[in-house]
Amino acid sequence: MNAEIAYLFRHALLRDAAYQLQLPGDRARLHALALELIEDVCGGRAPALPPSGTGSPDEGAPHATDPFAEELASHARLGTAPREVRALYLERAAEFAKRNFRGRDSERLWRELAEISDGCKEGEAVRQAGIVAFDGGRYSEAERLLERARELQRSGGHRRHEGLVLNNLGRVFKETGRVPEGEAAMKEALEVHRESGHRIVQADILLNLAGLWQESGRIDEAEKALGEAGTIYREEGDPLSEAQTLAASAALMIYSGRLERAEELFNEALPCFRKMKRRRSEGIALGNLAAVYYMTQRGDLAERCLDEALVIHREVGNRVYEGIALGNLGLHYQETGRFELAEARLTEALAIQRDIGNVRSEGIATGILAMLYEKVGRLEESERCFLEALAIHRRVGNRRFEGFHQCAFALLLVARGKVEEARDRWKAGAALLVQVGDARGLREISKSARQACEKAGVAPFEGAVE
What is the pTM of this model? Predict the structure, then answer.
């Protein structure tokens, strides 16, 4: 043991011994004094944060005590301060940890706040813990917390706050493949907040519904919801949420093949995210912008965007989109002939998505891995992965990728000499792509289909398009 470590060890023991020698009453007064002195140095007691779920875009101004809020909550607990002071600093500490991407700390602090709260406030603290768990990709824990929050708000008759929980639960259901349950929860939440008149909360729910409808191939409904949400944010003076709506609209434009407009919208949204230091939103937008570059034959830009997005996702602890970015990098490496790198990224993506329970993204990554195995001649593994991916797509209602991977599976079956089964799968997959309006996807896979049929010496598939 070197001298410095020995000194620190002895110093800590001496400190603890000196602390324990104080009488309990003296210790409490010292904690109260410490709280008072830290507050004085920081310009006084921090104000309470605005109530959650009011529909206000104002999250509360930062305060000089925020970096010390957890310490102040501890002094309040051990000193003579009223419970309200401890609750004030626990809430501010939880928000500060969340802003600084310390998700586990934030969740722990919300839980601690819930333990000293009751009624609506307890339910809201539990909901916030659930939101942090969801943002970190811990879906099972998020669902457990949100179900508890829902029961607390329901039993207390706090209908509006129950509506907030329903919106969050809807997102969990959507991400874990329970699309009908997710839609039902979000619609109920929307009805609650239309009754209460909280317009920004209505817009938040519409934004979530738009994402669900887009992924279900209901483009017109998604576009209408995004338009309504954007109008509300603009009228209520919430530029950050308006930028998030622009980014969501851009993602919808990708889905429906309007790539030029998608790029314009991403380039409108990104400066706002950067100005307001919303790294999580910036990372998601960059990952989606990479898809535009990929589809418009600008592979170098796509790879650069994905690399930058991956750094941000890891920085902020966004495991959901870390997995998605890895899957997209795997696809890009596959298309550029870097097969070992592709398999490594896709395997890493699958491990993340399975760990966090993101079933929809697991299905997409599994289908991409199936296509990779087909390219490198590992045909049995390819067939197994296609069957796994298609089962997931059907379970979660991902009709677009079910159609695309059904068509890709048909190409594998041609190579394996199973021509009749290949034709049946092609027909089913092409019909799905037509239903969801993915003409671009059908055109792309049709090129590969013609090549596969020519190589196998069989007649082209019916429904293949130029």
Answer: 0.79
